[in-house]
Amino acid sequence: MKTIAKMKEGKQRKMVPFISLIALRRRIEKLEEMTSPTHSCTFCGTADDTLVISAEGSVSCSGCRASKGDYECNEWLRWLKVNDTVQWDRVVDHHRLGSNPFSNLVRKIRIEP
Fold first, then answer.
1. Taking Cα atoms as reference points, which of 30, 4, 1, 25 lies closest to residue 16?
2. Contact between 67 and 77 (Cβ < 8 Å)
3. Which residue has the higher pLDDT, 16 or 80?
4. Domain ranges of the chain
5. Who's near 27: CB < 8 A, 6+ residues apart?
6. Which of 49, 47, 95, 46 minimizes the C-alpha distance to 73?
7. Nearest to residue 83, comparing CAs of 66, 97, 62?
8. What is the DSSP code string of the chain?
9. Any residues with CB less than 8 A from the CB of 18 and at least 6 apart, and which?
10. Using alpha carbons only, what angle is made at residue 111 by residues 54 and 101, rounded to the nearest 5 degrees?
């Protein structure tokens, strides 16, 4: 984040945080895009009415949120593989062709014994 010094009557004031309008507009557009009705769950791809944006920036449906809880992604995927095969199949299908780090993790865990 940039900082600028404000000048008033020839005196320099404290440095204050400055966010450009372009950066602010991009943040707003990203949030609007993530909450649009056409968006789907980051994990399983479900277009659910109860999509919620997490602190990490991922969008999750109620099913994934309930089962993931406080698990780290790798722990949660291993748990899904063993305990909830229906949800696991949805996650695998959604990330079959993806090239992001989460898709790579799904493929790695899928081939584990």
1. 4
2. no
3. 80
4. 1-34
5. none
6. 95
7. 66
8. -EEEEEEETTEEEEEEEE--HHHHHHHHHHHHHHTSTT---TTT----TT-EE-TTS-EE-HHHHHHHTT--HHHHHHHHHHH-HHHHHHHHHHTSS--SHHHHHHHHHHH--
9. 1, 2, 3, 4
10. 35
Predicted pLDDT at 37:
55
- What pLDDT score was predicted for residue 80? 92
pLDDT digits (tens, 9 = 90+) for 46-69: 887 778 877 677 788 888 888 888
Judged by phi (left if over 0) then psi (alpha if -120 to 50, else beta), residue 20 lies in beta
* 105 pLDDT more than 60: yes
Average pLDDT over residues 40-51: 82
Provide the mean pLDDT of the chain: 78
pLDDT, residue 89, reads 92
Q: Which two tokens stand for residue 30?
A: 């990203």
